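Page 37, continued from 36.
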């Protein structure tokens, strides 16, 4: 089985690019561990493939906003709105971009949500209740056809759509070392990344992605 991973953070002209992880290097080992082939495409500069060539699609996080209007982001937003029958897992910026493509509002938060936080996410075997956040905007409306899967004091944290389409505001794909470095780039303190909870969130993230992949098989 092969899945497509669309990266939104590889643009070399973004001011935060130097602080962002190389997603090709980060994603490949994760999916190797999950025994799934993954094809990573840089959505900021590469053509968007036909998603029907893959079992499912993941859309990763973004250093910008779903409201931004760079040509590549507009193309990706339209692509996500067009292929609504394809199984999908949207992560952070991918979660926001799909909601925006379907007409929901994405707005700035009163303050950045960064660090490890508790969250209840039903129906994921092995999920212990920890997630990694690093975002300054959030989805404020429930898009058409979606149901709220998880929320906390900061608002909507996960949505489910028909057709095995899930989106989450947090980062299930990040390994421990990337979480620390990316969090620091957003002003996180050591207190917001306690090692025990970070490791639990990494494990919970793998449980989420594994469960989504199992649904494709």
């Amino acid at each position: 089985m092969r899945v497509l991973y669309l990266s939104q953070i590889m643009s070399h002209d973004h001011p935060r690019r130097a602080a962002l992880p190389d997603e090709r290097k980060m994603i490949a080992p994760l999916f190797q561990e999950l025994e799934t082939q993954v094809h990573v495409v840089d959505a900021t500069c590469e053509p968007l493939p036909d998603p029907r060539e893959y079992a499912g699609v993941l859309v990763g996080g973004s250093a910008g906003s779903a409201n931004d209007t760079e040509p590549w982001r507009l193309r990706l937003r339209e692509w996500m709105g067009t292929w609504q029958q394809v199984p999908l897992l949207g992560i952070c910026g991918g979660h926001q971009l799909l909601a925006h493509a379907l007409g929901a509002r994405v707005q700035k938060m009163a303050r950045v949500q960064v660090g490890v936080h508790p969250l209840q996410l039903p129906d994921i075997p092995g999920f212990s209740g920890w997630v990694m956040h690093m975002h300054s905007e959030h989805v404020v409306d429930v898009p058409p056809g979606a149901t709220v899967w998880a929320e906390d004091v900061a608002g909507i944290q996960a949505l489910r759509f028909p057709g095995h389409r899930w989106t989450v505001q947090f980062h299930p794909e990040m390994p421990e070392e990337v979480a620390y470095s990316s969090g620091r780039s957003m002003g996180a303190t050591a207190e917001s990344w306690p090692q025990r909870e970070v490791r639990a969130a990494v494990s919970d993230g793998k449980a989420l992605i594994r469960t989504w992949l199992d649904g494709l098989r």
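Helices lie at 23-33, 71-82, 93-101, 176-185, 195-216. Flag for discussion at group meeting. The chain has five helices and nine strands.
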